[in-house]
Input
Amino acid sequence: MGINKKITWWEPEFGEEEAKAVYDVVKSGYVNEGKHSEELSKKIKKLLNVNYAVTAPNGTISLFLALKGVGVGVGDEVIIPGLSFIATASAVILAGAKPVFADVATYDCNILPDEIEQLISSTTKAIMPVHINGRNADLEEIMKISNKHGIPVVEDAAQALGSKYNGKSLGSIANAGSISLAPTKIITSAQGGLVLTNEKEICETIIKLKDHGRLMRKWNFHPEIGFNFKFNDILAALAVVQLKRLPERLEKAKLDYIQYYEGLGEISEIEFFETNFSNGNIPLWVDIKLKRSREHFIDYMEKINITSRPFWPGIYSQKAYRKYSTRRLKNTDEIASNGLWLPSGPGKSKSDIERVISEIKNYFRKN
Output
């Protein structure tokens, strides 16, 4: 092991209990969305203190369903941050709407409320803040804007399962929210997502959209147009077991972040983003900004078997989305070009992280 051990940026972690849960579902012969999916929904509702939690095949589809649930359709606009994983914008396009990109704050990567206010138009149908890396967007100000203009808010909480704001779970606060169970999340079912809402009408709209226009599968009549966005019990059983690990994983994520902060905080060329632990925020990943060449740093670490990951490019700068924006988002560009994620996650030991810290210190001594 030692110095030659490969330390990856992130990988999911499974045990025998997960393997048995999946095997048992396959052995049962019923693999469609059923009792295990229902169990997952019930556990998420209780955990996040939300009235409804509807399973979906992945986080992109759950975002799409949330947008449709609040009434987004063809010709509408949805205000989203310029910095996020591209699925945030993909869901808007899938809903038939146009993404409108707002800049983000340099101190926490989250959408700026002042930008939202300036971008509202007669066709704005929703505001979709992303809680980047488990840090809450400024929901207090965003909800004020929402109430002022009568525009619903959908929380993209894909990176924020278990993170809170003023005692409330992120994803459960606005009109609707979405969480993801992708492999790079705090718990995973390989792929999966859930739509969260406290509003019955939104929930029923989502259920009909995900199951061929009907509220109950036993129905053979379909009063509305819908599709097949059902989950399945193989992945649901996996998620239910993973959910047991959530408290310890949230604590570990917090400790990982603190270990890096205490180990690297005095390096002037590394900047950590503001994180409000006292208010319930828990970073999913360990993110930093470098004040020098990111590519040189990443290459150096790769050569000693340590993988880090650069931030996403600003969505608005991606080729597929350039036509939706005519202005530069300065803060988005700055973070996108300098930000990166350091190795962390369920399978990383304290000694793994200590080795990464030591090698980063070596890098800055040499360079």
